[in-house]
């Protein structure tokens, strides 16, 4: 099969590369000439474990191609995926669809033979219908369907998630489009991956409802963590005790500094906006968003409190800047709320992150970036863990203690909670740990 993927951001690049690994001929298109040149040279613009080898292999085997020219790609394609960005629109929080519609317009003029146009980007319910109208207006004679096929990739585990998904969701009423989608995902069909064949609107909503529900689990456990601290209970044990109930499940019940990233914050806001526009109040999602917003800010106060009520003139070591491990993505990272508040209160911040320091420079100022976790904490008055990178899980606590000015450990991800750092002489603050 021949497939065009429009947009070589996170979703487009991972999806295109994985489809080529399935044996299809994939042409990835992006307007950014510099990015396309770098991709052709084997340079991957994002940090995603395993992606570079997969791109290199499929380019070498001539199944994966990159171009800036849609006209080289779309004519003769069986499917054209729209995987361009849908950022939050300033002001009302709704998804900004200008890139999606611009791509659809260009695709319309190039369609040749029957083609399925597929939305892979997360788009509000009803977008597929709008794209269909738009293409029909430009090319009334075009032979095409518009299907929805949302992605459920996690950054840092995107290839695994694509190759071994929990489910594939395909939204279209057209049997012809469904057949093409089945051929495209053939290796996964053979694998007995569950397929949800449904209407386009339903498929679009599944994506938002899934992300909003996962965000709900996180805000829920974060509120329970606050309660644990007051009651003297342990949130990790509460989460384990809850999660063993198969109806609840153990995942996404890790209390922490709040969710970040490019998806949950944006998608929850967009879902709220869809509710508003349709006069259906989504009170739970609204609360989830509020709890998370407040939580990120509250974390800085918690650090200041642990430092005895003031960080004025203190040196604070921060481990982890990315919104989660295995990515260099800083978007909506809790670190972006925490660090400026510490600085406004007179703290000097020394930070280390295994992948996100370069990216962090675009968001944060006046930080000293350290060359290792130990370098960051040398002479610091407190050590704060913001992101649970694996390399922070096995620090030599004796060395940590000897490097720190005072043995204060604020662990916003609870990675040391079970190691009992208090026994090693640390003044230890976890999350949701009654003291
Ligand atoms: C999320 C979803 O997990 C993917 O299924 C979805 O495809 C993707 O959004 C998307 O819409 O594109 P991602 O944002 O990469 O993926 O990251 P997650 O692993 O879901 O983590 C999101 C945030 O929640 C992180 O800040 C993480 O630290 C936080 N989190 C996660 C918690 O605080 N506690 C948890 O128990 C789990």
UniProtKB/TrEMBL annotation:
Known catalytic reactions: UDP-alpha-D-glucose + 2 NAD(+) + H2O = UDP-alpha-D-glucuronate + 2 NADH + 3 H(+)
Segments crossing the lipid bilayer: none
Pfam families in alphabetical order: UDPG_MGDP_dh (PF00984), UDPG_MGDP_dh_C (PF03720), UDPG_MGDP_dh_N (PF03721)
Binding, NAD(+): 30, 35, 86, 122, 155, 266, 331
Gene3D superfamilies: Cytochrome c1, transmembrane anchor, C-terminal, NAD(P)-binding Rossmann-like Domain
Enzyme superclass (EC): oxidoreductase
Pathway connected to this protein: Nucleotide-sugar biosynthesis; UDP-alpha-D-glucuronate biosynthesis; UDP-alpha-D-glucuronate from UDP-alpha-D-glucose: step 1/1
InterPro entries: 6-PGluconate_DH-like_C_sf, NAD(P)-bd_dom_sf, UDP-Glc/GDP-Man, UDP-Glc/GDP-Man_DH_C, UDP-Glc/GDP-Man_DH_C_sf, UDP-Glc/GDP-Man_DH_dimer, UDP-Glc/GDP-Man_DH_N, UDPglc_DH_bac
EC number(s) from the headed UniProt entry: 1.1.1.22
Swiss-Prot/TrEMBL keywords: NAD, Oxidoreductase
Catalytic site: 263 (nucleophile)
GO MF annotation: an example: UDP-glucose 6-dehydrogenase activity
Start and end residues of each UDP-glucose/GDP-mannose dehydrogenase C-terminal domain: 317-418
One Gene Ontology term from the biological process aspect of the record: polysaccharide biosynthetic process
Positions contributing to substrate binding: 152-155, 207, 252-256, 260, 324
Family: Belongs to the UDP-glucose/GDP-mannose dehydrogenase family.
Entry-linked PANTHER family: UDP-GLUCOSE 6-DEHYDROGENASE TUAD
Protein name stated in the entry: UDP-glucose 6-dehydrogenase
Organism encoding this protein: Emcibacter nanhaiensis
């Amino acid at each position: 099969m021949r497939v065009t993927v429009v947009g070589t951001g996170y979703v487009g690049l991972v999806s295109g590369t994985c489809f080529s690994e399935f044996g299809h001929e994939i042409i990835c298109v992006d307007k950014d000439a510099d990015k396309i040149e770098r991709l052709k040279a084997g340079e991957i613009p994002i940090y995603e474990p395993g992606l570079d080898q997969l791109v290199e292999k499929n380019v070498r085997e001539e199944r994966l191609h990159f171009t800036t020219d849609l006209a080289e790609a779309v004519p003769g394609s069986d499917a054209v995926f729209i995987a361009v960005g849908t950022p939050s629109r300033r002001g009302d929080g709704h998804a900004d669809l200008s890139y999606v519609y611009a791509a659809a317009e260009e695709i319309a003029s190039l369609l040749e033979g029957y083609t399925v146009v597929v939305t892979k980007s997360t788009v509000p319910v009803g977008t597929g219908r709008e794209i269909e109208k738009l293409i029909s207006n430009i090319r009334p004679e075009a032979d095409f369907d518009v299907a929805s096929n949302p992605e459920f990739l996690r950054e840092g585990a995107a290839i695994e998630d694509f190759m071994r998904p929990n489910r594939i969701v395909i939204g279209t009423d057209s049997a012809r489009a469904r057949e093409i989608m089945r051929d495209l995902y053939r290796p996964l069909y053979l694998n007995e991956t569950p397929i949800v064949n449904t209407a386009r609107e339903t498929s679009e909503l599944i994506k938002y409802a899934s992300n909003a529900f996962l965000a709900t689990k996180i805000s829920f456990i974060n509120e329970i963590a606050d309660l644990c601290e007051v009651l003297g209970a342990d949130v990790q044990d509460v989460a384990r005790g809850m999660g063993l109930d198969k109806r609840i499940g153990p995942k996404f019940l890790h209390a922490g500094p709040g969710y970040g990233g490019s998806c949950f914050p944006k998608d929850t806001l967009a879902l709220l906006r869809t509710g508003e526009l349709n006069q259906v109040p989504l009170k739970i999602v609204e609360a989830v968003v509020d709890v998370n917003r407040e939580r990120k800010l509250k974390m800085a106060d918690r650090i200041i409190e642990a430092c005895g009520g003031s960080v004025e003139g203190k040196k604070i070591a921060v481990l982890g800047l990315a919104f989660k491990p295995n990515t260099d993505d800083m978007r909506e990272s809790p670190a972006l709320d925490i660090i400026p508040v510490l600085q406004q209160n007179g703290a000097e911040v020394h930070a280390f992150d295994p992948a996100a320091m370069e990216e962090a420079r675009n968001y944060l100022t006046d930080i000293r970036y350290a060359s290792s976790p130990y370098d960051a904490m040398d002479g610091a008055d407190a050590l704060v863990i913001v992101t649970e990178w694996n390399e922070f899980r096995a620090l030599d606590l004796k060395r940590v203690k000897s490097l720190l000015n005072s043995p204060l450990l604020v662990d916003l991800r609870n990675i040391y909670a079970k190691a009992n750092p208090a026994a090693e002489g640390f003044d230890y603050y976890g999350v949701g740990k009654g003291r």
